[in-house]
Every structure is written in structure tokens, then in C-alpha cells.
Amino acid sequence: IISVAFHPKGDWFATGMNNGEIRLWQVSDSKQIDSGQGHDKKRIWSIKFSTKGDFLVSGGEDGTVHRWKTDDLAEAPNLIGSHDQPVSSVAVSSDDRFIASSGEDGK
Q1: Is residue 40 a contact partner of residue 20, using CB atoms and an 8 Å limit?
Q2: Three-state DSSP class for 39?
Q3: Which residues contact 17 (CB under 8 A, 6 or more apart)?
């Protein structure tokens, strides 16, 4: 596990793995309930849920930023941005309208 984030309602959490996989877990029993693959099978350095919890954003070692639907992680994520170097952090605005990312390329 490289990164972790709690769903806004607090009943789920997501993990970003070293193989580009996002996993969704139930807090109550730590049971995995969904997963999806992205980031060219490279490390996911940062993940963040939207305020409403209907999507999450991830940034990876491959320099890309992806948007995932939390109700179906198996569906291919949307590529929403890229950097020339690995993405170190992602953020979602409080109204879910904007997504920001930072990378090792200084952008």
C-alpha cells in the first residue's frame, strides 16, 4: 500500500497500490469490495475522494492523474491530466468542480 484515503461518509477507504491498482474497502470489517487497474501498473502515490464521494482521483508514478467512479472501479478510469514526472499529490475542491495535482516536474 502506497497511499490511502477515507470516503467522506467514513464507511469505506481506498488504497493505492504499488502495481497501479486502486482497492476499495469497508471500514467495518476491512473487506475488499472493489478494485480497478490503472497508471500503467505503476505506483499510485496519491488518492483523494471527492466531497460527495462519487469519484476519487489518483496520481501515479507514471505521471498521470486519473478520475475513478467509486461505484465501479473496474471501469477504466478517465485520464484527466499528466506531468512529465511522477505525480506526488492530488486534491479535489470542496465543491468537486476542480482537481489539482503536483508532480516532481515542478508543475
Answers
A1: yes
A2: helix
A3: 1, 2, 23, 43, 44
pLDDT digits (tens, 9 = 90+) for 20-70: 999 999 999 999 999 999 999 999 999 999 999 999 999 999 999 999 999
Beta-carbon contacts of residue 10 (< 8 Å; ≥ 6 apart): 27
Q: What is the CA radius of gyration of the chain?
A: 13
Q: Is the overall model pTM greater than 0.90, yes or no?
A: yes
Query: How many other C-beta atoms lie within 10 A of the C-beta of residue 6?
Result: 13
- Is 43 in a helix, a strand, or coil? coil
37 vs 6: CA distance, rounded Å: 19
> Residue 18 and residue 67: Cα distance in Å, rounded?
18
Write the single-letter amino acid at 53.
G
